[in-house]
Amino acid sequence: MRRNPTVSQPLTTRLRAKRPQPPSTVPPSSLTSLSSNNTSIAIARPMTKIRDDSSSDSEPEPTRTPNYHVYNMAKTATVDQSSPSKPPKLLAGELTPEVVRDWRNACLTYFMHKEIEDKNQVKMIAFGMLDPRIHTWYLAQQATLDAGTFNDYITALKDAWLDTHWDTKLRKKVLGNQQGTRTFYEWALEIQNQNALLFGNPAHLSDAQLRSQLEANICDELTIPVLRAKFDLNMTLKKWIEEVHHLDDKCLEDLAMHKKFAEDCYKSSRRTNQQQSSTKTPFSSSRTSSTTSSSRLGQLTLAECTLLADHRGCFKCRKFYVPHRSKECPDGPPEASTYKTLTEADAIAAKPTKSERSTKPVAPVVPVTAVMPSSVIEEASDSDDDTSY
After folding, report:
1. What pTM was computed for the model?
2. Distance CA 40, CA 277 (A)
3. Residue 291: CB partners within 8 Å, gap ≥ 6?
4. Cα 180 off chain centre by
5. I need a surface site. Which of 130, 156, 173, 283 has the fewest CB within 10 A?
6. What pLDDT digit, counting tens, does each position of 162-192 carry?
7. Model pLDDT, residue 296
8. How far is CA 240 from CA 211, 225, 232, 372, in A?
9. Higher pLDDT, 134 or 289
């Protein structure tokens, strides 16, 4: 009777098993995840290669794979409170001035609803700090923190967990914040919110200091209207912000009308050009008519209209900084053969100097944003003919 082999593995496989095998990589299942409130760590379990007794003496010794650590970036802490009568929770994460402010407000709300005495306030919310680092910090000095006031606890929390000189850095950020292209009201709210984080700190700006900072950093288009308004120095910060907000809205409306006028002028010029091109005589017409057509002055472009409007120019003679309008233009249109497209450099070159303004009477200089609506109404009556010269 034939006996079955005791090992079901094929012979070639057994021979291959005696050969030295390279260390295997760490399978995903061998990773052990350790998580904390701040950092997630993945550690690879040591993988040891089992030595086969049937292998030769030259087989390499058992190898151990290195441990792999994967760290997540620290997140910002958050404050959680289900209701005003429940103790708040400070979830794990990095503390910022905004988070400390929210934590303080939530604790004070809880104290007020539960009528907790001052001597018991710190111990009533201490175990709501769920970050292991901060909780350990509290336990290390629990007796001192519990014996002090809640404000002393907040001060110690800021000193221990906020960036060094955070108040100086935040004050510098407030003082260096400029309006830029934002609306005044949006920018003023951002400045006030940043300054509120410094409340109770020597770096906090008073209302008078905050008003001076806002006046010094508003956009150029709003500077002259604010100076001309001559607001009372005793005006409250809230009232002053509202008044400047109205001036900023008016400036934005004037700029919108200015842009619309320039676009309408450009569209009108294009319509006129299309009409002229559709009524042109054939090339085989008389030489006189072809010469007249080729020497005709082209229409103003959108860029040229904008430059003339910005630099108090005339749409007929196409000159910058002149004391007349298109209706009463004494110069007439320029020569088509020598005319060149207007540029920003031409407008800057035509701007009168201080000496010329003192000896030559010109119209009073006012901001474009302030005079644009009236100039739009005045220029609108000139229709398309002013731009066709």
Report:
1. 0.49
2. 72
3. none
4. 11
5. 283
6. 999 999 999 999 999 999 889 999 999 999 9
7. 73
8. 8, 13, 9, 25
9. 134
CB atoms within 10 A of CB 278: 7
Residue 142 is which amino acid?
A: Q
At residue 52's C-alpha, the angle toward residues 48 and 54, to 5°, is: 165
Residues in Cβ contact with 44 at an 8 Å cutoff, skipping those fewer than 6 apart: 26, 30, 31, 32, 65, 66, 67, 68
Integer-rounded Cα Rg, in Å, for the chain is 39
The answer to whether the CB of 69 falls within 8 A of the CB of 43 is yes
**Looking at the predicted structure, is the pLDDT value of residue 299 above 80?**
yes
How many CB atoms sit inside 10 A of residue 270's CB?
Answer: 13
How far is the C-alpha of 369 from the C-alpha of 254, rounded, in Å? 5
Looking at the DSSP bridge assignments, the partners of residue 40 are 35
Distances (CA, A) of 194 to 126, 161, 173, 241, 371: 27, 19, 8, 16, 36
State pLDDT tens for residues 205-258: 999 999 999 999 999 889 999 999 999 989 999 999 999 999 999 888 888 887
Q: For residue 316, what is the DSSP state?
A: T
DSSP-H helix ranges across 176-286: 184-196, 207-217, 220-229, 237-278
Cα–Cα distances (Å) from 113 to 73, 79, 80, 104, 106, in that order, read 37, 18, 16, 14, 11
